Amino acid sequence: MQGKIALEEHFAPPDTFEVKFQYVSTRLPAWPEFERRQVNFFEQALRDMDKTGVEMSITSLGAPAIQALLDPGQAAQASRKCNDFLKARIDEHPGRLAGFAALPMQEPEAAARELTRCVRELGFVGALVNGFTQLQEPDSALYYDLPRYLPFWEEVEKLDVPFYLHPRNPMASQLRIYEGHPWLLGSAWAFGIETSTHALRLMASGLFDKCPGLKIVLGHLGEGLPSGIWRVDHRIKMGGERTPAKKPLAEYFRSNFYITTSGNFHDSTLAAALTELGSDRIMYSVDYPFEYFEQAAEWFDSVAISESDRRKIGRLNALSLFKLKG
Fold this sequence. Notes:
This protein is of the alpha/beta class.
């Protein structure tokens, strides 16, 4: 399929950038290649896009990056510089790239200001945040259902742009279950568990009752939630629990969430997502540089779905959600 739009594709600033970010995959043998492709995103990825029918990539900073900076001032400064760097690259390739803002979630007010600047001044189409944020202490984790983040969410709703909740590994102090099994960390398993739990916290907190217009994007065909959320609601109800939310969590999943195909090129998983959410809430993505444009396109262009759904997922849903020019 020609004209695809991909939206979980990650760059890294050049080595000359002042702030040296943490990246989750440095332990992997393949990390040097991943790093090379992130740093060279604006050359390598564009060539791969041309080969695989991808017209546009909505580009973002890799994980955890800003979210792992402990000092709020440094986080705010680094976010601004990364966003300005990305804007300059977008301007060099008109019509091929768009931007997700990196945000200093260490301070919700600063994050709201930077998102507003990125949307109104830089023309970015939303934000991508790499999971929970650390603050001051290495063993810290701020999740975005906390009351301190409500003014930030109100600004996101007012700006009417999507917020991509991207994974990161759990804190080191939370990793006991993975001891002796490092292959379960990162994108193989821990990413999905961490991110789906964060998403469930947002749903259960009542956030979407306060801000019903929010649009949250999850990658990897929904981090397991399409097949798991019924049981979450079922067991909450059967246990007699009451969440702060006014509705079952699945209702927020179907009305406030979108998912992408990033890094999950599997027919039956896509079928489950289509059953739970419908084709209007699924979008094509690759997860570059950790996945290959070629493999993603080969699967998506031939997967057994209707051509109408292929056009929606591959292009039309992203045009609509991100208000892109078709």
